[in-house]
C-alpha cells in the first residue's frame, strides 16, 4: 500500500514516529490485577527479544504513567509489538515526532512592543513600528507571583540572565530518580553534552512568559521541561513520549493538594496528526487530555504554516480518524494562541481557524543577541504569562477558591476585542478607544 505522493506507509511511519518506540495505555475500566500480570508478561517478552537480527538493541520498558493515564512506554522488538497489539485490554500508540514552532526571523533594530500591546490598561497611543526601548507594560503588581509556568520545550540556557535564577529551573522529564523525587536540576549540573544553543527556543519561550523585563509574568516561577534529546537537531527530536512524560511529572509533582490552579502549561510545539500504518491514536492528545482532566490550564501555539486548523471530528478511537487535526492546538479545552502583526492583523505565518481562541503579538520579539524572532511559539507564552497573573490575583483575593481553566479563558477573552474577522485580540485598545 502506498500514499498519494508515492510514500509507502512504512516510510511515512519513519517520518512521523520514532522507530520502534511505543506507548501502551490500559483501557478503562482496568481490572485490578491485570496491569501487574501484563507487565510481567511484557518484561518476559522483552527478555526474549532484546536485539533485532541487524543488531539493534531494544531498551524495553523505560517510562511509566499513572497521573495523566495508566500505562507505559519504551522501545520494543517488532515481535513484542505484535504481542502488545494482540492484547484487547490495551491500546498501542506510536511515539510521534513533534516540531518546536520556530517562526522566521530577520535582523532589525532592537526594541519591543508586544508587552505594551497586551497591557491590561491603556499605555496611550504609540507606533509599534518605531524602534524604541521605552515602551510601557502596565501589569498586575503581583506579576504572577505564586504561580508556576511550565514550558515544555528544548530546555533552558543556564547562562541566560533574562530570568533571575531563583525563579527558573530546568528539568528533564525522564526516568531520573532525582526528577521523580521532584528535586531541582542544578544549573551547575546542566548536561554538558548538549550545547546551550540547542536550548535557545525553550529559553526564549520562558523569557517571553516570565522574563524580568521581557516577560508577561515577571514574578512567576518557571520550570522548563527539556523534551529534546538530540542536541544537534532540537527542532526535530522532541517526541510525544518525552512530552507525555513532562505532563505526567507536572500533574504528579505540581497537582498535589489540589494546586492545579497555580500552574500554567505552555506548549510552543505541535504536529499534524496523520495516523498512517502503525502510528495509531495520538499519544500527544492523550497526554494533554489527562492534564486537562486534572484542571491544569494548557496554552498552545496555533502553528506557523498559515493553514486553517479544525476541531477533531471524532474521539480518535481508530487509527485512521482525523488525519488533519493539529495537536495540541486542536484539542478541546486547550487555549490556542494565534499571532497578530504590527498592524494587528493575522501574521502571515500564523495558523487560523475555529480552535484558535485568542490572538497575541507574534512578530518582532527581540532576543538577547539582538535578533528579532517571529512565531506563534512566542505569542503563546505572552498569554501564558497573562494567565499566570490572573491566577495569582485570584489566589490572593480568595485563597480557598480553585480557579478553573475555563474561568481563566473567560477573563482573558473579556479583555480582548474582536476584529473585523471575529478574532479575539489580546490588545489594550489604546489605538482604538
What kind of sheet is the major sheet? 7 strands, antiparallel
Helix-strand topology string = HEHEEHEEHEEHHEEHEEHEEEEEEHHEE
Whole-number radius of gyration?
Answer: 22 Å
Low-confidence stretches: 1-14, 102-111, 122-127, 175-196, 316-320
| Name given to the CATH homologous superfamily of the largest domain | Peptidase S8/S53 domain
Task: Tell me the number of strands.
Answer: 19
CATH class of the largest domain: Alpha Beta
Shape annotation = globular
**Number of helical stretches of at least 4 residues:** 10
Q: How much is the average pLDDT?
A: 79
Organism: Orbilia brochopaga
Pfam families: Peptidase_S8
Protein name: Serine protease
Family: Belongs to the peptidase S8 family.
Mind explaining what this structure looks like?
The chain is built from 10 helices and 19 strands. Strand 16 (365-366) and strand 17 form a beta hairpin. Strands 1, 2, 3, 4, 9, 11 and 13 form a 7-stranded antiparallel beta sheet that branches. Strands 7-8-6-10-12-14-15 form a 7-stranded parallel beta sheet, with helices on both faces. 25% of the residues lie in helices and 20% in strands. By secondary structure, it is α/β, with parallel strands linked by helices. It has 2 domains: 9-95, Alpha-Beta Plaits; 105-425, Peptidase S8/S53 domain (Rossmann fold, 3-Layer(aba) Sandwich), CATH 3.40.50.
Amino acid at each position: 500500500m502506498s500514499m498519494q505522493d508515492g510514500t509507502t506507509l512504512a516510510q511515512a511511519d519513519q517520518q512521523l514516529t520514532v522507530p520502534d518506540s511505543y506507548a501502551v495505555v490500559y483501557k478503562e475500566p482496568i481490572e485490578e490485577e491485570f496491569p501487574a500480570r501484563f507487565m510481567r508478561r511484557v518484561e518476559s517478552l522483552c527478555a526474549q527479544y532484546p536485539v533485532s537480527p541487524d543488531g539493534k538493541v531494544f531498551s524495553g520498558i523505560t517510562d511509566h504513567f499513572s497521573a495523566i493515564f495508566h500505562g507505559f512506554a519504551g522501545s520494543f522488538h517488532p515481535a513484542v509489538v505484535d504481542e502488545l497489539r494482540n492484547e484487547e485490554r490495551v491500546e498501542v500508540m506510536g511515539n510521534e515526532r513533534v516540531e518546536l514552532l520556530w517562526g522566521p526571523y530577520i535582523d532589525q533594530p532592537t526594541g519591543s512592543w508586544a508587552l505594551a500591546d497586551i497591557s491590561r490598561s491603556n499605555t496611550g497611543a504609540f507606533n509599534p513600528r518605531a524602534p524604541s526601548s521605552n515602551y510601557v507594560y502596565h501589569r498586575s503588581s503581583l506579576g504572577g507571583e505564586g504561580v508556576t509556568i511550565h514550558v515544555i520545550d528544548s530546555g533552558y540556557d543556564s547562562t541566560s540572565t533574562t530570568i533571575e535564577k531563583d525563579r527558573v529551573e530546568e528539568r528533564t522529564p525522564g526516568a531520573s530518580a532525582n526528577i521523580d523525587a521532584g528535586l531541582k536540576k542544578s544549573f551547575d549540573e546542566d548536561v554538558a553534552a548538549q550545547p546551550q544553543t540547542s536550548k535557545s527556543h525553550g529559553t526564549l519561550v520562558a523569557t517571553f512568559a516570565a522574563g524580568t523585563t521581557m516577560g508577561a509574568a515577571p514574578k512567576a516561577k518557571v520550570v522548563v521541561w527539556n523534551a529534546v534529546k538530540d542536541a544537534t537537531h532540537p527542532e526535530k527530536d522532541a517526541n510525544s513520549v518525552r512530552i507525555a512524560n513532562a505532563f505526567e511529572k507536572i500533574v504528579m509533582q505540581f497537582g498535589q493538594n489540589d494546586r492545579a490552579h497555580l500552574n500554567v502549561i505552555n506548549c510552543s510545539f505541535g504536529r499534524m496528526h496523520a495516523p498512517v500504518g502503525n502510528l495509531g491514536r495520538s499519544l500527544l492528545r492523550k497526554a494533554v487530555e489527562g492534564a486537562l482532566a486534572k484542571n491544569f490550564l494548557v496554552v498552545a501555539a496555533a502553528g506557523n504554516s498559515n493553514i486553517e486548523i479544525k476541531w477533531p471530528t471524532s474521539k480518535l478511537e481508530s487509527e485512521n480518524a482525523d488525519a488533519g487535526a493539529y495537536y495540541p492546538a486542536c484539542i478541546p479545552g486547550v487555549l490556542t494562541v494565534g499571532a497578530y502583526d504590527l498592524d494587528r492583523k493575522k501574521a502571515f505565518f500564523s495558523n487560523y481557524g475555529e480552535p484558535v481562541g485568542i490572538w497575541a503579538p507574534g512578530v518582532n520579539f527581540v532576543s538577547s543577541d539582538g535578533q528579532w524572532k517571529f512565531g506563534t511559539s512566542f505569542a503563546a507564552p505572552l498569554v501564558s504569562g497573562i494567565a499566570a497573573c490572573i491566577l495569582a490575583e485570584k489566589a490572593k483575593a480568595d485563597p480557598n477558591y480553585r480557579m478553573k481553566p475555563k474561568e481563566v479563558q473567560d477573563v482573558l477573552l473579556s479583555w480582548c476585542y474582536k476584529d473585523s474577522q471575529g478574532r479575539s485580540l489580546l490588545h489594550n485598545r489604546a489605538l482604538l478607544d
